[in-house]
Amino acid sequence: MTPAGLRRIGKTRLAGWLANRSVRNAPVIAAAAVEAAHAQHTQVPGEKTAAAMTRILARVVMNLNAEITRVDALIEERFHQHQRAEAIVSMPTLPPQPSTSRTR
User: Fold this and answer.
1) Which residue from 8, 9, 47, 57 has the fewest beta carbons nearer than 10 Å?
2) CA-based angle 12:13:17, to the nearest 5?
């Protein structure tokens, strides 16, 4: 979306639009985006093309996120079919060990 488009849509509608797409911190991101749009009134050559490309790339990322979620569910489902899954899940977890780095 171009700065002019962000100014038109406003903070509240943008936050709602982002929240509907499961964007974290949607109100904060919307406020920052609209504030930046209000600071920029110069139209840059190619900004509409850049906005279109950004839209396409955002869709690709959202589709990848959905695919990762789907594959994660498949892996979890397959894990729970394993004969030892119940025993593995019942084991207490170990606290994370601090990483040790060696200097040579």
Assistant:
1) 57
2) 120
